[in-house]
Amino acid sequence: MNKCILITYPGITGKAEIIQFKQLSEQLKAHPEGLARFPYFVSCLKTEEAFELYKARKLLLSGPFSVAHRIRFASDFLFEECAYEAQTVALEVEGRKLPELPSRAELEGLLSREKTFILIDGRQFRPNTEVFGFQNVYDNTVKTIDSLKSLGVPNDAVKIFATPDEISIEVHSSVFGIEDSVDLPKIYRALLIKIAGIKRIDRKYLKTWNKTVVMENLNFDSEILLPGTLHSRLHRPKVEVGQSHFAYGPAAFSDYCGKKRTSEECSKEIKSWQKFLESNFEAAPKLVEAVEKLDIIERESTVSAPSTGLPNSEGGFKNFLSDIQSTIQDFPISENILPATFQELNKSLGGGFSNKSLNVFFGNREEGKFSFLISLALSFIQRYNLLFISREQTQREFGVRLLAKLKKISPTDYIAKIGIPGNESAELKKKVGESLTETLETFPKNLFFRGIESNIDPLNFSQVVELTKLLPSGKKTLIFLEGLPKASVTSEFLSELRSSANSNDFAIFVAIHSENQVSQRISVIENADLDFLALAQRFADSIFTMQSEKTNLQKFLTFAQGKVDPAVVQKIEAGFQKASGDKRRFDTYSLLRILHARNGYRQVILYYYQRDLFRFFEGPSIPLSRA
């Protein structure tokens, strides 16, 4: 093996030197305590050159996939690049709880004070107090080994090393079927995310069940204690353990790791590791396939200190200029946009609905919210998985509405006749059935509906999330919830939807009905709107109200130009008539009021709504104001 390795010496943090892999044994003899390595092997002999090539994304890297689990202290919660799911972190200084965490430099100074505590879920911890101990390390390691086995990693391609505070797993690189690559850290990071239950939320990572895994070990410049080297704090060497050691339980495992070793025994440890890495293994087909399907995340190529895993992932309380500069790449909007088929609506939303968003439709019953959601769903159906859950509709009612919209068949034309005995009724049933079959033969298979026949309650959103796990993989999921009464919708429920949309990469559309009267003065935001905004604006990306009446065309024109001009009425009606391509029947007009658009502006849009066919045609718009 002709690779080189970057090593760091005890007491000289961050200063690396490149040596030949075969020279490690001699280095260990000279530096028995604290000798550490960088995670990846390089083919470059000059340290500065290696760093320059890495920054330029030209440095080919190789080496084992290393997964470390380590005892977590309270201070780790502040300085790790991961946050912890369902756990809050704050700082208490001199008896005062700080509203936000300070900058990293100030944080390090505060932690050295006698009366500084780290609050985790409200409990006080000294910075050096264990929060997740060796039992957690042991349990998480066992689960991770099982995850690796399920991906097809063979036992002989794995080495396990331990100290009294850490267990690390190393998988030989040859089983992945990967050549030397500049992207190896990104590939390994994506693999760790997969096997360790780590979620990615915006620009930060979130630990779920595996609270002791150390993600920083995969950074190019992280320092990993070499096998056989004494731990600088515990003064015990990093030693190899076998999978059989886990059969004796964590107490016996810890005792084995905590024993003293002679220098000869320590030397054997590093030689055994060298021999392992100089070996070669067949690529594991299942693992190769899993790696090919990984979601490889682009990361900055520059080397920097790890940041905190708290909401501001860059670390600490910063001024607006610093905040805005760190997120400037997100302006105006860099995230994916979900454009609907309605152009004016897209324009008012800044291009379309936001990715990872919560969008709420509010209004009285029978105003067209359900039909509008169907229209939105069908506009997304070619690109995404759609889960449509109704609290009030049956599967048959949903099917009737889909058929009416897609085939332009009015249910009132045949529903009454079908119930009348006779040949005409039977023939009509057959015709409708054939029409539905014909429509659905070419219909995408990524729409899923659950109505009142189902046990799924949209107000119990954890059930909905579990249901999404059964959807086909490979496509983003859009969730539609319909028929929710306002009396049952709480801020806690909306907060749960908001959080789930963010953490699971959902876009959620919710129809909520109220018995309140919608304002007759469309340019004025009334008390009912203000009440609903107070409830939902904090959580929703967009909030709409709907009102459907025949007189809405006249209302719209009155507030758009101060009068109802017959010529303008005729022009708008002609435009709707041309767009619909049908004779006017059971038609009305809908006013969609955009009360809140986080990435757009408030607006009123006029729609032509064919109630009997459940179809909407978009018309003109005016700005929404309070005067």
Q: What is the percentage of strand-forming residues?
A: 15-25%
Helix content: 25-40%
The N- to C-terminal Cα distance equals 77 Å
* CATH T-level fold name of the largest domain: DNA primase, PRIM domain
Specify Rg, calculated over alpha carbons. Answer: 31 Å
Estimate the mean pLDDT confidence: 85
Strand arrangement in the largest pleated sheet: 22-21-23-24-20-25-26-27-28
Q: Could you say what the CATH architecture of the largest domain is?
A: Alpha-Beta Complex
Number of H- or I-type helical stretches:
20
| Category by helix and strand content | alpha+beta
Q: How many distinct domains?
A: 3
Q: Describe the global form.
A: elongated
Q: Please describe the biggest sheet, giving its number of strands, its sense, and whether it closes into a barrel.
A: 9 strands, mixed
* Total DSSP E strands: 28
Question: Can you tag this structure with a few keywords?
Answer:
28 strands; alpha+beta; 20 helices; elongated; 3 domains; DNA primase, PRIM domain; Rossmann fold; 627 residues
Can you walk me through this structure?
- This protein has 627 residues and is of the alpha+beta class.
- The chain has 20 helices and 28 strands.
- It has three domains: 4-71 and 133-292, DNA primase, PRIM domain (Alpha-Beta Complex), CATH 3.90.920; 76-131, no CATH class; 337-541, Rossmann fold (3-Layer(aba) Sandwich), CATH 3.40.50.
- The strands form seven sheets. The protein has a nine-stranded mixed beta sheet, sandwiched between helices. Strands 2-1-3-16 form a four-stranded antiparallel beta sheet, with no helix packed on it. It has a four-stranded antiparallel beta sheet with strand order 4-13-12-17, with helices on both faces.
